[in-house]
Amino acid sequence: MIEKIFSPETYALLGQWAFGFCKSLIVAAIVYFVGSRLIKLVSKIVTKALERSKVDPSLFSFLTSIVNVVLWLVLVIIIISIFGIETSSFIALFASAGMAIGMALSGTLQNFAGGVMILLFKPYKVGDFIEAQGYAGVVKEIQIFNTIIRTGDGQIIIIPNGGLSTGTLKNSTKEPYRRVDLEFQFEYGADYDEVKAAILEILKQHPLVMQAPVADSPVVAAPWIGLSKLGDSGVVVATRSWCKGSDYWTVYFNLNETVYQMLKERGFMFPFNRVDVNILNKD
């Protein structure tokens, strides 16, 4: 028995195995050396690309970490395969684990994916006034899973990023200029030309109203006034004027107040709904 174990054939098999193992070890060392250098190179390229795109810092660190983990995982699988170990079972195990985790965290992953899309494409940023999911407010913070907004009355609303990335969203501060739409109603019989001239004078004298188109916005125009409709109680005059986005509410309330005061001083009457009641005497 001992003679068979230490027979020349056994030594030959051990020698072949040792030679094959050393050969695989050398190849694995070379692959590791080259692969680690390639991973560092790819990481540098990805880092520079993300820096040029000005990605949010929280997303920047996450993406670079994900790239490194995936690349090192691929390198480990390649090295294992060099030693003749079957890697399909490892790949199937990773795929099954990923699928199980994905199904368990489907809602969370949707919000995570939405956060990545928001941080990459930037449909809004901190400080923007947005309306989405039935809420309106100023963006206070953009997290990887949620966006936090502050409403006009000081409430904090936390909105999941999944719905924000796939639903309709209104960003009122994305453009540098906004149009202020106002309507004023006057009694029938008022001189329309005189009303129009009075309101136009107010718009032209307002310091925050744009008086002409600007080069950086193709939609900005000079103030416009027109007869909107003939209402039940009076004539409705519509105004369209442009201002900077940051001045919108100041212009909105100030124009309403100024137009009311000036036209009232000039004798124009603002109509109101009236109900006529007729009493019939049957005697």
How would you sum up this structure, described in words?
With 283 residues, this protein is α+β, with helices and mostly antiparallel strands. It is 52% helix and 18% strand. It has eight helices and eight strands. Helix 7 crosses helix 8. The protein has a five-stranded antiparallel beta sheet with strand order 4-3-2-1-5. Strands 6-8-7 form a three-stranded antiparallel beta sheet, with helices on one face.
Give the strand content: 15-25%
**Describe the biggest sheet?**
5 strands, antiparallel
Gyration radius (Cα, Å) is: 36 Å
| Class computed from helices, strands and strand pairing | alpha+beta
How does the overall form come out from the CA principal axes? elongated
* Total DSSP helices: 8
Strand element count: 8
- The helix/strand order is HHHHHEEEEHEEHEEH
Q: In order across it, which strands form the biggest sheet? A: 4-3-2-1-5
Please tell me the overall pLDDT. 80
Distance between the termini: 138 Å
Helix amount: 40-55%
Regions with little confidence, pLDDT below 50 for 5+ residues: none
Short description:
The chain has 283 residues and is α+β, with helices and mostly antiparallel strands.
